[in-house]
From TrEMBL:
It is found in: Endoplasmic reticulum membrane; Membrane. It comes from the Eukaryota. This is Dolichyl-diphosphooligosaccharide--protein glycosyltransferase 48 kDa subunit. GO terms for cellular component: oligosaccharyltransferase complex. Residues 287-425 form the OST48 middle domain. GO terms for biological process: protein N-linked glycosylation via asparagine. It holds the Pfam family OST48_MD. InterPro entries: DDOST_48_kDa_subunit (IPR005013), OST48_MD (IPR055459), OST48_N (IPR055457). Belongs to the DDOST 48 kDa subunit family. The chain crosses the membrane at residues 401-423. Component of the oligosaccharyltransferase (OST) complex. Residues 1-20 form the signal peptide.
Amino acid sequence: MSRHLLLGVALLAALHSAYAGGKVLMLLQSEKNIDRFSSFTDALTAAGFTIEIKGYKDSSLKLREYGTWLYDDLVLFAPKAEGFGGSIDQQTILDFVDSGHNVLLGVNSDVSEAMRNLAAEFGVDLDDRGTKVYDHFHYAVKEDGKQDHTLIAATDLVDSPVMVGGPYKQPILFRGLAASVPSNSELATVVLSAPGTAYSHDPKKSMIEPPALMVGAAASLVTAVQARNNARMVVAGSVEMFSNDIFNSQVTVNGASTATANKDFCVTLTRWAFQDRGVLVASNLRHHLLGSEEQPWGYRVNDDVEFLVDVMEHEGGVAKPYKADDIQLEFIMLNPYVRVPLQHDGQGTFSLRFKVPDVYGVFKYFIDYSHRGYSYIKLTHQVPVRPFKHDEYERFLVCAYPYYASAASVMAAFFALGFFFLYHK
């Protein structure tokens, strides 16, 4: 096998491993709860993830050793934790995210102040400790016939199949804490919102009037955040929604018996959070003059050029062509002179043909793409644009014929006047 072929195989293997399931550290409120989430962990293991489960007080806990991160993803199912064992603290978790890694945070009504502060760092404001989401219309009745108006049957999902899968015919059960997300947030997405008849309330306190912020769709049950470095965080107000008990429940909603969609929803959303879905990779950026395959060092004004880039979508370690009509290319010098959507061929190659503006200077190709549920693409490539050289202009321009004629007439008149002056008295 040749050296180049070996190198190509190695690169493909590295790329596959980079987007296949990674190593996950899962911290529980108690190690006795391991079996409680076995269906969830088994589904992630089947998806290719390696999961290490520990109690949040374990003295051997560490995310980083000698400057190297030991895990790719972190699951925090310890809502009451005020701190962690070992060398893990809030700042370590934030550094973990800043380095491009992912966090799944599950809480409940007994959430500690430390977990509320961590969620706030992600841009998600959890409701006060002790509050619960109630709904007296959209609730589930379990097999024992007991009515529990805090067991919400939610169906209001974000319109992004890459994040949540679906559509689901069964409800998603939720029992826990609501959160609020600022309406102007650019990074946070409400994945699962409460029904319009739901509200958040602390049963130990009297409620003189309905709460203003935690009512209906304004109450976020599950929130996803994608940072600018493409690290992903999910904050779920119910850690119970990931449990075997909810996954395998048969409940009655509005008089009809149904299973739950929790398993498919939670596993799909977790795979998204761990960058196993919705990952876009742009590569092989190239440009050339029309009629030539060679990439030039720069352009001349008014040249006809073609720009191309390959964009692939990675899911479960497998790359497939990305298909979309909303990726825009900008050709910028201080301000965009060209801003046009790229066209794709269905095989992952996006291209655009355009005429270079009649302005010379240093331009750059610029792509800044963000589509809900997908990782961000930001590409920049600089290219100079020069004016015509002195020997590249056309010698005779049709529009200049009046000027040519005026110059010729002046010369003819001068010759006639000189002849008349020299040879006539």
